[in-house]
Design goal:
The protein is of the alpha+beta class. It is built from 13 helices and 13 strands. The two termini are about 30 Å apart.
Amino acid sequence: MISSFMGLETAKRGMTTSQGALYTTGNNVSNANTVGYSRQRVNLEQTSGFPTVGMNSPRIAGQIGTGVEAETVQRIRDSFLDAQYRTQSNKLGYYGAMSESLSKMEGIMNEPTDSGLAATMEKFWNSIQGLTANAENSGAREVVASTGVMVADTLNYYYNSLTSVKTDIGNQINVKANEINIIISSIDQLNQQISKVEPHGLVPNELYDKRDVLVDNLSQLVSVNVKNVIPTDYGKASDVATGLYNIELMKEDGSSYAPPVNLISVNKTGMLGTAKVEVSYDESGVVDGVKFGSKTLKDFKFSGELAGLIENFGYKKTDGTTGGSYPDMLQKLDNMTKAFVNEFNKIHQDGFALGANDKSGLNFFEISADGSAAQSIKVNSVILKDSSLIAAGKTSGASGDNENAKLLADLKKKAFSDYETLKTSAGIEELKKMNLTGSFDTYYSGIIGNLGVDSQSSQKNLSNSAALAESVDQNRASVSSVSLDEEMTDMIKFQQAYNASARMVTMVDEMLDRIINGMGTVGR
C-alpha cells in the first residue's frame, strides 16, 4: 500500500530541486561579466521508483515515480574549443612579440626619412662630390667634416638604440620566465585543491574556471598540451569531474619532445611535481638554453611569447653561431661600418692634405679596435680642428689637385668585393664571413628592405592569429558564456516548476486534511 504522505515527499523534492536550479541560475546571472566564468547547469535525474523489488513490496500495478533530484551542478565547457583557442593564443603571443620588437627596430632605423642613414650618407657623398669641384675651398672641406660627423652620429645612435631595446627585451625574457613559473605554481596549487574536493563526489566548478584561465595565460607564453587525469585511487569522484591537469610542453608544430617535457606532471598515481623554468646565457650575453625542470632546450621551438622574445634578443645556435633579429642587425651594421671605414681611411691615407708635400697617412674616421665599429665610429678630432687636413689631392697638396677626392667619391658605387682592404687573402675570408655584397648603399638598402618584409610579415601573421583567436574565442563563448536572455527563460521555467510543486504540497495537504479530519465521523 502506498503511503498517504508519499506525495508530500515527491513535491518536496520538486521544490528543493527547482530551488537549487534557481540558485544556480542566479549564480550564472551574477557572473555574467566575470572573466573566465563558465555557465553552470543543474543536471536533473529521476529518483528511484516505488516500490523496489522485494518480498515485502506492496502489490500495486507498477512502480510509481518518486520525484526528481539534482544529480550534479556541471559547468558547460568544450575541451576541443579550449585546445583550439590555446593553439591560436600561442601563435598570437609569438607573433605579438616578434611584431612589437621588429616595429621598434623599424622606428629606430627610421627609413626612408631625411634623418635616416641613407639620407645622411647621400649628404656625405654629395659633400665629397662638392669637394672635387672646390678642393681648395675651406667651406667645402668643413661640409665634408660635418657630414662625416652626421654619418658617425647616426651609426652611433642606431647601435646604441638597438642595444638599449635589446636589453629591454632581455629583461622581458626574465619577466616572462618568472611569470611562467608563477602560473605553473598556481595551477599546481589548484590541482591540489581540486584533488581534495573531487574524491568526495563534489564538482568544484569555480576552481576549474580559475585553472583554465591560468592555462589560457600559459598557452600565450609557451605551447602546451593539457591532459585530464583522474588518479586510480580517487575516492567517489563524480562522472563529470574534470580531474587533474597534466601539462606538457609542445613544439611549435604540435609534436612532443623526446622524452616528453612536462611543466606539471600528473599520472594515475597522483601528482608528481612541477618544472621550474630558467633561462641561461652564454659569455656574450645571448640565450644559450632554457631549462624546464631537468631538461635544457636549445632549439627554442616551443613557440609563444617567450620564444618570440628570445628570437629577437639573440640566442646561440646549435652550430655555435649567434642568431636573433637584434644581434643580426647589430652585426650587419658593424660589418658594413668596419669595411667602409677601413676602405675610406685607406684611400684617405694615400692622398695629400691641402698644401702638403707628403702623403697624409691620416685616418678620416676612427673606430675602436676591440669594440663595435658602428658604436665607436667618429671623425678624427684632428680633421675636425683643421679641415685642410682632408686629403683631396692624389699627387700633391696643390689647391687644384682633387683626384683623391674623386676616389673617395667613387667609393659610393664601389662594391665591397672591390675594396682594396678586402682583396688580401685574409680580407677575402673576412668578406665571406661578413657576407657583404654590393656597395655600402645597396647593402644598407637590402638590410632595410629585409627588415620591412620581416616586420610586415610578422604584423600580417599577428593580424591573422588575432582574427583566428577571436573567432575561436567567440565560438567558445557561445558555448560557455552566460546569456542573460537564456538565464531569464530558465529562471521563469524553474520558478513555475517550484510553484507547481508548492501547489502539489497544498493539494496533498487538503487530501490529508480530509483523511484525518473528515473520515470516520459518520454516526457520531
